[in-house]
Amino acid sequence: MNDPFPPSTWERRFLGIAETVPYITLAASLVISLATPVQPPGAIPRTLLLTGLALAWLLGARTLLPAEVRGRRVAITVHFAGLLVTVALLTAHDPIFIIYSISGFFLAANFAPSKWTFAAVAATSVVLYQSAIDWAHADLQLIAFHLAIVAVQTVAIGGGHIAGVKIEERQRKYRKAVSDLQAALEENADLHAQLLTQAHQAGILDERQRMAREIHDTLAQGLTGIITQLRAAQRVEDAGTHVGLALDLAQDSLTEARRSVAALQPHQLEDAHLPEAMTVLARNWAQTTSVDLHVEVTGDRVPLSPAIEVTLFRVAQEALANVAKHADATRAGLTLSYTGAVVLLDIRDNGTGFREPGGQGFGLSSMRQRLRGVGGSLEIESTPGEGTAVSATVPALQGSPR
């Protein structure tokens, strides 16, 4: 499986150098050794033999062992031990091969990060300095001096290897964190795009629902009133009054339809607050019906936010339209109550009533949706033969006075 976070460029470069250092130092040592003008008898064949042995060991470990085996601790240890043996043999034969011993410091990096790194560096240092000591004339002070050098060298080089590995580990974690962050940012961007799409679709749906409610509350109710007046005109000789009312309703319905498309508030609320608008609504409604409508406003009147006033006005329109169309009532009442924290709208009639006050006709559904949109609620009570009561409750969110 591919490593999702491979070694950095620096680490790959160092590992590449560490692989080639043994060959470079072995070749350099051989060239310098062969270039020495005065050599003992048989030295050159022995040099070539030992160099060939060292090269065979290097190539054998690299080519004969499978890649998955070469990375194991046992294989690394055996390969490193064989390298030190060939270093010891070559430096004992010709001290110039001390150059080749440097490769041990590089290959010690294969043990990092562990205590074996220090052991590999220490072993390389011992092999390196033992060839530099004239054991026939060495004293305790000289041996102690070289041991001190071995110790310092081991700590410095071994610590450097481990520090390098630790730094690389931190860099890998950093690269992984950056990669995770980038993935999270891309995911967030995708989610943001999805949210925008959903918001756009939700906005379209909300606008369709708004238009449906407005059409129902304006055009449908206006057309119902027009039909009522025209039917009344058919039954009397003097039809002028009913035709005039029908024309007025048609004009008002057209005006309200245009305002609905433009998402404007009802014209009754343009220059007046809710109580005055309700009075105008009730007067106009009473003119088109034969129902006696009583309007009452209680409590301390305060200007409400436009959204609240429009919602209550539309609910009153719809409730009165239902009375005219379905109730067959002779009396109705509209009460607007300011109680401080909430505003109540109650519309009741003495009509036929119905058995399922929780019905879901579009008019009732429209009223509930409107009220939910401003944090309000709707309750309906109805008894067959005794009439219906519609009660709307909204929070008294205040607006600016006109």
Automatic annotation (TrEMBL):
Q: Which residues form the signal peptide?
A: none
Question: InterPro entries given for it?
Answer: HATPase_C_sf (IPR036890), HATPase_dom (IPR003594), His_kinase_dom (IPR005467), Sensor_HK_TwoCompSys (IPR050482), Sig_transdc_His_kin-like_C (IPR004358), Sig_transdc_His_kin_sub3_dim/P (IPR011712), Sig_transdc_His_kinase_ChrS (IPR017205)
Concerning SUPFAM superfamilies, the annotation shows: ATPase domain of HSP90 chaperone/DNA topoisomerase II/histidine kinase (SSF55874)
Span of domain Histidine kinase: 312-398
Q: Where are the transmembrane segments?
A: 21-38, 44-61, 73-90, 96-112, 119-137, 143-165
Q: Name one GO molecular function term.
A: 4 iron, 4 sulfur cluster binding
Recorded catalytic reaction(s): these are: ATP + protein L-histidine = ADP + protein N-phospho-L-histidine
Q: Which PROSITE patterns match?
A: HIS_KIN
The places in or outside the cell where this protein is found are: Cytoplasm
Q: What class of enzyme is it?
A: transferase
Kinase as a keyword? yes
Note down the stretches annotated as region Disordered.
380-402
EC number(s) per entry: 2.7.13.3
- Function description: Member of the two-component regulatory system NreB/NreC involved in the control of dissimilatory nitrate/nitrite reduction in response to oxygen. NreB functions as a direct oxygen sensor histidine kinase which is autophosphorylated, in the absence of oxygen, probably at the conserved histidine residue, and transfers its phosphate group probably to a conserved aspartate residue of NreC. NreB/NreC activates the expression of the nitrate (narGHJI) and nitrite (nir) reductase operons, as well as the putative nitrate transporter gene narT.
Per its record, how is this protein called by name?
Answer: Oxygen sensor histidine kinase NreB
Q: Which organism is it from?
A: Nonomuraea fuscirosea
